[in-house]
Batch of 3 targets.
Target 1
Amino acid sequence: MKYFINSTADYHQHDLNSLGWELTVCNSLEPLDSPCRQALLSPCSFGQHLYNFLKEIIPVDRIHTLLEIGGGMGYLMRDFLALNPRLRAKMIDISPYLLTKQKETLHSFDVDFELADILTVSSKALSGFDLVIMNENLGDMPTLVAEQGRKNNSDQNNPAVLERLEYFKNKYNLPLGLNENEHINIGAIEIVEKLCFAGIKYIYLSEHSCEAVAPEEMKPYLLFQSSGSPEMISLKGHKEFTIKFSYLQKIADVLNYQTRRGSFADFLPLNLNDKVKTALRLITPFSDEQEIIKQFVHDLYKYEYLILIKGDEK
């Protein structure tokens, strides 16, 4: 099987200078007057919703140290620290631009910052954190892209990469490489293993999923189908891939972590009022607001989260 490596590292290190064109679910809920807030039962920010959701699943009173990897503009961390000021927090990001923005957003809080590629950070260096968050960025991790007939590419069949692929396949009983057209989220797999090896008590991961399924009550409004295999998303200056969460879940299970998995709609409950229903039913929205709502609701069900809880934790 032939692969080449898709990496976004160079883009994030040298070219990224805005997130305006890449609107995350977190960022879409940032403005107080955002139509996305009005589409929810509770018009709060993303971080507020997520923190309150996690409180129901993990004992936040036992969390003293918090690490966010790839924290975007810093909005999620700001909300967590506002709700729980006693947390000792750190941000690690590969992007100098985003790390600067995080420092601006979090200037009133006591936070440590590190410019680094998380894949080069050792498990030992991460072992002191109780909770680690990676929100909406697993798709930025390196992906092995399967392309039949691709020739003369130096990244193809890199022995070290294929050795790691075989290691993951055997250790976690993953059917990697069996489907010749399936891309492999090798970076996401690496990071889940690294965080588990570090013994992190609680881990929150999320991203655009290739396995998400719309619930029955939403099928009249949502047209998406899930391929079951990572899909390429072309963005400004780089390409990302949707995530196969079942593989990550299997790794966590083998490493003695309990898991909880679901869609963003679990903690961002939709207010399916007439205004939202109208926007969803339109093939071509009549206004910018309707288009924003339509995309936002789509994302609520296409994005998945995966919560990992270390086996000896409750």
Note: Residues 85 and 109 are 8 Å apart (CA to CA).
Target 2
Amino acid sequence: MQDQQQPILTVENISFQYPDHTLGLDGVSLTIKQGEFFSILGANGAGKTTLLKILNGLLKPSSGRVLFRGNDLSSLDKNFLFSHICTVFQDPNDQLFAQTVEQDISYGPYNQGLPEPEVRLRVKKALELVGMAEAAQKSIRSLSYGQKKRICLAGVLAMQPEVMILDEPTSGLDPMGVSSIMRLLKKLNQEEGITMIMATHVVDLVPLFINRLAILRRGKMVQVGTPEDIFNDPSMVRGASLRLPRIAHLLEILKKEDHLEVEKIPLTIGEARRTIVNLIAKRRQDAV
């Protein structure tokens, strides 16, 4: 097993300028560790998608470089790169193209030059991993939006990547669909060892699923850290045109307006419940 503390992707002072001279990224540096679930957080236009496209080799930075396991991305064979760093698009309709589920998922492994028995095994395993084992012969057109998202994941899993890049993977889903997809991604991260890099602006997901995150604002890196590091600096978060998770915002208000004795702002319902229960117990004990 590879050391999960080793960097798998290293971003060194990259900038990117679009043909119309718009600056998409400005001096961004970042290290992503093997096996972690990493999130890139920012408001619309912050540079999240641009950074993802540089991480997977679809765009070349105007300056700086990106290293995959210590090797410059620009020096790697494209087939090797696209097999090891795979992307799940925001809209599944931009990614799915075949008539049936099996045909779509098998495209990547066939393109890798794998023999048919291996391809069939990979398709079967990928469908099992995303909870759609019975869907192989279904028409892509017959699938719901959420099912299409899962088939996109299966298509990437069949490539057996080391890194999975996800651009707003919960967009267009209802609350139950969001929860289902995020639990699936976390399971794949923990059980399959896939390094996940997810761009999102949905801050409430971060404390529940993410190991570390980076805040982008207008193409610049604002801060990198754990959810606790980031969201216990509300002024920085709001300065990046983002908000605190709802539960953290509630506890922040209770602390400021109602003088609730909270040292560290809880980020999840479970943490908030424990904090409030402990405070109630303390007040009862003090009252005796």
Note: The radius of gyration is 21 Å.
Target 3
Amino acid sequence: MRNGLRTTALFSLLVSILIVLSLVFEAVTFLNGIKISWLWGDQWAPPFNEYDLKTPLVGSLIVTGIAMVVAVPIGLASAIYLSEYAKPITRKWLKPVLEILAGIPSVVLGFFALRWVTPNIVQQINPQAPGFTLAAAGIGVGILTIPLIASVSEDALSAVPNSLREASSGLGAKRVTTTIKITIPAAISGLVAALIIGISRAIGETMVVFLAAGGGGNQAQFTTSAFDSGTVVTAAMAATTAPSDRLSEGVALQSLYFLGLLLFIITLLLNLIADRFVRRVRIIY
């Protein structure tokens, strides 16, 4: 049994290493096959040998930032309500419903962001906004991320011992004071973990951005405005793999591996930073 478990663990590690090596080798091949100046231009357009890195990277930052503005307050407020204020019977019903929301297909939220969020929210804020915007994609990704952040945060808050709440109440603190000054600081490591998971989920989302931001094409102009069409790393990868004679092989296809390596590095750095922070602030009861 020990040998079988060890073999399984080593096999998983081997697969992970092979995936990373394949990304590295193909990314190096991509860099050797282009001019470095191609990585700094005005658009991401593989059919025209335009591989401007800042176009998908800045798009990813915009979409992720908007998603976190939407998801963090709502998700954290939902977690606090379920953990600190909801009655047991209410929590019993709401928690499974919240977790079921996380199972909504992203393509559904993509169409929702395109057909409802864009005309009713984005274009109300900016009437000149086109039909595909990074803002609509960010709101859609934020809605998709809310259940994940809420569920993980609620688990972290529920793990705080009731003795801390009782001690605070015994000193005369109100429930809201106990929540803000006792419960949340005690659960900060779990809340940070929920935030990092949400950010990683937002960065890795594909279909919502593919549909709502206009990232489904093989050409995207660089922009720093959330009210413009654009693309992100994952949507650019999805567009590159679309059936096309000009994109099915060669440098254009290898650019997919290069973007995948960048996405892997970004996610890895986020997790390393979060792990270091959690280790420093974690309190064991």
Note: The first strand starts at residue 43 and ends at 45.
